[in-house]
Amino acid sequence: MEDHGLGAAMTMARIVFEQSSRRSGRTEGLLQRARAGDVIVVIAPRERMRLERKLKEMGKADIKVVVMTPDRNPMERGGTNPKGATLFDHTWIEAWWTRKIQAIRDELELIEKAMSTEPPPPISENDMAWRFSNFAYLP
To answer: What separation in angstroms does the CA of 112 have from each of 12, 14, 23, 63, 131?
Structure first.
């Protein structure tokens, strides 16, 4: 186990950022700067429908909104937008970061196990990391 608490602290910092950024205009800013031919990537069909409706109201119906889960690298799915930019909405980016942080935590645990012949000593309750050792964010 990564017993310094950095992985848990990074997860919590991401959550604090996400929560404090609510209603800050991130989606509206994304829609404002999107141009004809651009593709906006979202995490869920419901969000796609919401953004498509907003884009239509803005007179920007020529911007495509697609659903793509952040469980794989989007570049592995193939395709490049030949007509413009590819933009990710904030919920997709937040989910991507969550997965990456957890993947790093998991990888460090595997490395530690692979390089050890004995299990690591337990984390002390006096250690800052102990307080966060079981923290996991489940949206």
So the answer is: 23, 25, 41, 46, 20
